[in-house]
Design goal:
By secondary structure, this protein is of the alpha/beta class. It has three domains: about 90 residues, 2-Layer Sandwich (Alpha-Beta Plaits); about 110 residues, Rhodanese-like domain (Oxidized Rhodanese, domain 1), CATH 3.40.250; about 45 residues, no CATH class. Helices cover about 30% and strands about 20% of the residues. The strands form five sheets. Strands 4-1-3-2-5 form a five-stranded mixed beta sheet. A four-stranded parallel beta sheet has the order 6-10-9-7. Strands 8-11 form a two-stranded antiparallel sheet. The longest helix has 19 residues.
């Protein structure tokens, strides 16, 4: 149990969802009626998203989604927040629920072997296992598993090219991949299996499930895990972390980076200072002034979502 006000549900399921377009409006209306906020993505290959609301509202939403026969058995991860971590509710129609850009990849046909969090340490500790972080570079920068390869991708679309370019050094190895909630690495394993690799594994439930289930004293995770909401990051036990977002460029920034001469709350950080003009920073400074005034008058922050 938790005293937190909001339940956060990260969910996905690959499915043959030919009627996905017809689900958009009913799901959006359902969420708005229940006070749920966040994002749901719908595509012919299934559903993906993260939403937050009261525990009762989230339970009702999950039941509503799983009432669609194709979506029964969602992959679900729950966490909690003291404040609503999203500003609005969005239900979007997409070509892919996680964008890789390789149309022939089909996780419903073939994926890697799921590995439970309790068994993950044993797999990645093996000398013949290559551990690959399938997330983007800004996510990896704030936390990853010890010894994991960082493809240094800006988007998931770059992952297939990176793997092809590094294929020779990966041949003959066990390939173990992971991501935040499991969806990216599930699709990545489908891609890698399609290239002829046999021993391909992925962390079931992703980093979030690992941080929830594995005690910190036994963990091989270093740092925090980036999440796509206003909590920004979580650590072991899915407790909210210390990472914040630069409101100018939305890059995650550590407490150490906030000591930089280039950091000014709401205006700039070391990642964006030299990519922005003085005019940009003046505009951001005015926005930040308005945010602070709103907070002084009891209105919630509402920028950069």
């Amino acid at each position: 149990m938790t005293d937190a006000s909001f339940t956060v549900a990260a969910l996905y399921r690959f499915a043959r969802l030919s009627h996905y377009e017809a689900l958009r409006e009913p799901l959006a209306k359902f969420c708005c009626r229940q006070g749920i906020k966040g994002t749901l993505l719908l595509a012919a290959e299934g559903i993906n998203g993260t939403v937050a609301g009261s525990t009762e509202a989230i339970e009702q939403l999950i039941a509503r989604i799983e009432s669609e026969p194709e979506l029964e058995g969602l992959e679900l991860k729950y966490s909690y927040a003291d404040e609503m971590p999203f500003h609005r509710m969005k239900v979007k129609l997409k070509k892919e629920i996680v964008t890789m850009g390789v149309p022939e990849v089909d996780p419903l046909k073939s994926v890697g072997t799921y590995v439970a969090p309790k068994d993950w340490n044993g797999l990645i500790s093996s000398s013949d296992t290559v551990v690959i972080d399938t997330r983007n570079d800004y996510e990896v920068a704030i936390g990853t598993f010890r010894g994991a390869l960082d493809p240094q991708t800006k988007t998931f679309r770059e992952f297939p090219t990176w793997f092809e370019e590094n294929r020779e050094q990966l041949e003959g190895k066990k390939i173990a991949m992971f991501c935040t909630g499991g969806i990216r690495c599930e699709k990545a394993t489908a891609f890698v299996k399609g290239l002829g690799f046999d021993e391909v594994y992925h962390l079931k439930g992703g980093i979030l499930k690992y941080l929830e289930d594995v005690p910190s004293g036994e963990s091989r995770w270093n740092g925090e895990c980036f999440v796509f909401d206003e909590r920004v990051s979580v650590g072991h036990g899915l407790q909210e972390g210390e990472i914040e977002l630069c409101r100018a460029c939305r890059h995650p920034i550590t407490p150490q980076e906030r000591l930089s001469q280039f950091y000014q709350e709401g205006v700039s950080c070391s990642h964006c200072y030299h990519q922005r003009s003085d005019e940009d920073r003046a505009r951001y400074a005015e926005r930040q002034r308005q945010v602070l005034l709103a907070e002084q008058h009891g209105r919630k922050r509402h920028i950069g979502d």
